[in-house]
Amino acid sequence: MQHQKKLLLGAHMSIEGGLHKAIERGIETGCTTLQIFTKSNRQWHAKAISLEEIEKFKQAVTASSINPIVAHASYLINLASPEEATRKKSIIALKKELEVCSQLNIPYLVLHPGSHVNQTTKEGVALISQGLDQALQESPGTTIIALETMAGQGSSVGSTFEELAEIYQLSEHKKRLGVCLDTCHIFSAGYDFTEKKVYEAMWSEFDKTIGLERLKVIHVNDSKKELGSRVDRHETITKGKIGAEAFALLFNDARFFDVPKILETPKVTLAEDIYNMEIIKGLLTKETKELLKVKSEKAA
Ligand SMILES: [Zn+2]
Ligand SMILES: [Zn+2]
Prior knowledge:
This protein has helices at residues 19-29, 51-63, 84-104, 121-137, 161-170, 183-188, 196-209, 244-251, 271-281, 286-292; strands spanning 9-11, 34-36, 69-72, 108-111, 114-115, 144-148, 156-157, 177-182, 215-220, 222-223, 234-235, 261-263. By secondary structure, it is of the alpha/beta class. The structure holds zinc ion (ZN) (2 copies).
């Protein structure tokens, strides 16, 4: 996408005060990519975004060097719900999210696949695939839905690479489907990548089941909980159970230089985002820094 290699790193940014405010926050913290909710993530209905707000946002993006922008879909959407009414509502909401992404020129929409509640995983997988197809069928545009890897809490679908691969395989809109890998979630789900050997094994498994080319976004989070805990609690980079080596391996891995990497680490102000990004820059080798033209004091 970008012609010049750069460190593609940013954070989830609030849209309080308007969508364009997220871009201002991104500039302030030194993001080269970032993620937003295009509306409140816990509400079904949001007022339509005005043309003026769309223009303001697009102008802010163009004037910045932040690219790409990633959107995260509402937590309420559940394409795997056993309730038909909830599934219908979810498809309508997903179509709306896709429409907004199109208006805002956002290339990736991250989505939690869904929770099957009391059905089998297989039934959940089938419903998700059908729901995605219906939403994509009825939503012209180029935005890719990036299905997020889940920690495995409750009845959530997508805590194994196989489940995500099955959703993809059943879909008739494969070109508009990808994956968002969340480091905290896969660790909680039981994938170890904290040392070189297991790191390589994890990625070769990802490649075999899903395919590296389908990886569109990485959520960069350390984990408060242990490997396989199935509990989703994000932690500051290198301060959790995943630790520094895993993030050093990830950020020096040339296969992922072009994949937007987004922090969703705990924060009260923007200072924590800056802090996390500095930690990550401190993990980069001299070679990576030269390649990505990163200016930072410390070298790993
Ligand atoms: Zn998410
Ligand atoms: Zn999470």
